[in-house]
## 1
Amino acid sequence: MTTKEKLLEVKDLKQHFKVGRKGVVKAVDGITFDIYKGETFGLVGESGCGKSTTGRTIIRLYDATDGEVVFNGEDVHKVKSKTELKKFNRKMQMIFQDPYASLNPRMNVMDIIAEGIDVHGLAKDEKDRKQRVQQLLETVGLNKEHANRFPHEFSGGQRQRIGIARALAVEPEFIIADEPISALDVSIQAQVVNLMKQLQEEYGLTYLFIAHDLSMVKYISDRIGVMYFGNMVELAESDELYKNPLHPYTKSLLSAIPLPDPDYERSRRRIEYDPSIHNQDEDSEFREVKPGHWVRCTPTEFEQYKRELESK
Amino acid sequence: MDKLLDVKNLKISFNTYGGEVQAVRGVNFTVNKGETLAIVGESGSGKSVTTKALMQLLPKPHGFIKEGEILFEGEDIAKKSDKDMQKIRGKDISMIFQDPMTSLNPTMKIGNQIMEGLILHQKMSRDKARERTIELLELVGIPDAESRLKQFPHQFSGGMRQRVVIAIALACNPKLLIADEPTTALDVTIQAQILELMKDIQKKTDSAIIFITHDLGVVANVADRVAVMYAGKIVEIGTADEIFYNPKHPYTWGLLGSMPSLDNEGYELTAIPGTPPDMTDPPKGDAFAPRNDYALKIDEELEPPMFKVSDTHYAATWLLHENAPNVEPPESVKRRLKGISNTGSTPEVAKDGEQ
């Protein structure tokens, strides 16, 4: 492994929401991970586990309750001045889940994509602006002529391409993709994923890919983090995670994925996760069982996982 | 095997301001007793519309059956009146909808929603219906059924609601259960539970299931037979093994190739280029031809007939014609071929309505 440069460091990030007068929902409760330059980091888990909240907190859509998000050596949540914030916003962009709701229906595609260009004053003049938009449309596989149309004239897959073009318009380094393909048909999903992969190679982008479809996450990600109830329970390189899952929740999650293979399906055994197997008297912590492979476990479980890995 | 349902040359259209949308353009299939038929395809391929027509749930008057027969136990239910249909709906044929969040009545207690069908169709007394409802809730794995009866839908989680919907669908021991993407809105772990539940119940009650989904993993899990739909037509139909290990239609190849499997080291996902056609003006020839890398010249002119690959396996592609060039399926599909033979003989054109 070559030495990797950290692009984003998330340190003990917490995001709690107030519910009513007294209640607190700990959507994200102290998670720590790094994302290296040029990689795709996959974040998976069931609905309500806090994966989307994590993504949104990283990009400052929410103010973190506690913890740090360090991007390129700077703490994101401490940036206060307008110019600094602008600079930061240019580096980090987001692609949203629902391509139907995330595009303004009253704006044409040209203006949607150029919004970021205008905000950051990237275009010299009207001609340059137009040219940039047209180029972006071609980059994501649409036509120049599409610039004058409105979102309702496009299919789901095409809209998601517009969403990607909009994110790319400000030349970001880091893109958070929150379930970018789950609203799309299978055949279109592959188109969008392939496009994202190709763009990553061309522009050296770094992705945080949030999804619940584990087979697609495995396909696109270099490393994967598994979240469960606001905590990260396991983090490893994608092959490692699928070959040697250690945390019982990861095992249960992996055993639940149906694969397009009838023979495999006939023999698949589902493992159920029972959170009560963990010894509540011992403290659970995120520990490195093997270089690059982290699991949330108690000291006893830690030893047990190590043995489990060695015996493989 | 006993035929429970026999759909013959079904054509369904919708009248819209933009013209007539031909959502389903001549579909033939059968469902046998106790088996699961999965219908797969992209959104807009006509899979949901087909099953809604079976239940006469098409939005009237702009959605209508243009042609064809739906024989349920030998009787054509396409021509039944509303009143007659009400006796069948929920009793002989029932349906599980995609979204458990919107398919329950939010102002009615769960118990009453399940009992409704029992009292109406089975003419049960309230007390008896209540007993049966508790049984049903236990069957679908809802603990503490007795107190759950008195709760409202908002007090249930998504997975639990879908179980309630399944309990309602099963209440009258239907002969045919139509499940329209029953697990799409659920998490993988909950999905796995619901699928196991459905298979389990099918074993106990021997009802037939039509399972609509676009997730090929789910299909591999539940289906005995699979029908692949594209642009309002079935383009390939066969047993699950035949569709997954010996697919013949380029669209099926495309679908299989665009799904990542967990062990596809270094293989590129093959996306199907383009988008499905506009059904107000279906293209001449093969509707899939513009997106098909393997399209032949004839595809632009003439629609391919169904070719018979084996007694259970049919596909509508000119590639199976004796004069067609020998085309190898893409790498991603080749890895799947498990040497299921083509029964030796060359595929021939299927007779009308044979499938």
Note: The radius of gyration of chain B is 21 Å.
## 2
Amino acid sequence: MTTREHMPSWVTTLRWVGLILVGGIVLGPFLWALSTSLKVKDDVLRMPPKFLPWPLTVENYQGILTAGFPRYLLNSTIVAVCSVVVVVLVSVHAGYAAARYEFRGKSAMLFLILTGMAMGELSTVLPLYFFGTQLRILDTYGILILANSAFIAPLAIWFLQGYFRSIPPQMEEAALIDGATRAGALYRIVLPSALPGLITVSLVSFVHSWNEFILALVLTSSGTMRTVPVGIHLYLTDYGVDWGSITAAGILSILPVTLLFLLLQRHFLRGLTAGATTGF
Amino acid sequence: MSSATGSGPSSGPDTVATRWSRRLGEGLLGRPRGGRFDLFPYLLMLPGLLLVMFVTLYPIVFAVNYSLMRTQVFKQLAFVGLANYARLFADPRFQTNLVNSLFFVLVGVALTWTFGLALALLLRRQRWGNAILKTIVLIPWVTNQVVLALMWKWLLNGEFSPINYLLGLVNLPGLNPLISTAQALPALTIVNAWRATGFSLLLMLAGLSAIPVEVEEAAEIDGASRWKQLWYVIIPLLKPVSLACIITLTISFFNIIVLPMDLTGGGPLNSTEVLSLRLYREGFQYYNMGSASAITLVLVGLDLILAWAYYKLIRAETYYR
């Protein structure tokens, strides 16, 4: 801030070169995939490569949209939305209890919840698969929603308890004095003020579930239960190496999450910084 | 940081939180009513606790149990003590897996943290262009790894790679890292750091914005050079955020599966087969649940030890909180 006015022009130039270089390194692979997805078959494996897709075609997109990809999109949406609902329901209550109440066993319970953050999905794949076979709920939305929400819950609880702590308790106390029940104080007073935090938790949960791969791969088996990442993963085995279709599917799978992220970025960032500073 | 702080750097957000919770402990909400047992907070906590146990306690009990058994798929044949572990650690392939994982995680986390900090320093001022780039860098982090892996596989293939074409234009030799036993693991590690940099950038920016302007101005007035400011002022003040960043990344990198699976498939010659990929193969290709459970516990153990070590390390050096 202090040196802003005195910045020599070569520094400004250097800054812009740096910005463009970083932007190029990050976006380059995405742009190459986008370009590939819009190319006609003969142009995909052409040397020297064509960087711009010309003649332009949407046949790759048409191809995957008639081949089962819509079903994968539907599955992913169902699993992600339901997981968000479960995570929000569970973490609002647990987070609130952790932020506002002192009770015996609280720190032990919180510790048990937080160990969930140290567990990788992979470590649970085997037990969950076994669990699924025992209860005969493999290959259903139910087990995917259960597994996904269980994974996101620790982070969500931790985040929300931090968020609740940042809300001054006076309003709740006033409501209680006015005769509100304790649950009423939570739902009517605290939740509305915690809306940005809830949006953050929902967004993070949605993105996590949408992108989740290994649980969806292992816990489902039929073609109609595949989520988007599993579907794309299996394209290689199902259709062979057809880069046009694979990149088209990839672009379609990125689109919803990227849009959501761009639209709600402000909430996402604000929420994350609020949680990070109380967390550690 | 919350607006209620504002009493200088010495009282961090922890202090505010503690003050509030103490006040609440005495106040209306937290007071045990009439000294009787209050069920309400337990009811609030219970659903979350049960849900999370499903992916913590249950898997660990399961893995401990199975790792001590000789198994046939999920059937337990006999108790064998630590034989599964002994066999694993004597297995050269497993030793390679372990070394690969350590390289992938330690180098990967170091790169990601460094990239994140460097970018955060570049982008911390509110200027046109910075906000856009910040958003762009976060895109790989919110993209699913299957797509990222296939994208890079397509980009790094030796024959039709646009990168090699561009290198050829300036008379440089082409790259084909994914089929080289020496280059595949570094390539995988770098691609993963590229993916995760957005996350570390975000945390570093949050950390930087929490450093009061006065602290840096004071250092500048005292005549500290930019590098000295970075090394003696900024990096130490970023330690709590760095800790959060490093722990999260370490756990996530140890458990990564899709990127190695779809980018290199563990090859060539197992040179990129990390622990997580081996675990998947033991479980779902060889159906050897005993070994897979043992690897699971090694993985969980590594996560916990590293998280604890980082925590201790940073606690020991953090004297200003």
Note: Chain A touches chain B through 110 residues (CB under 8 Å).
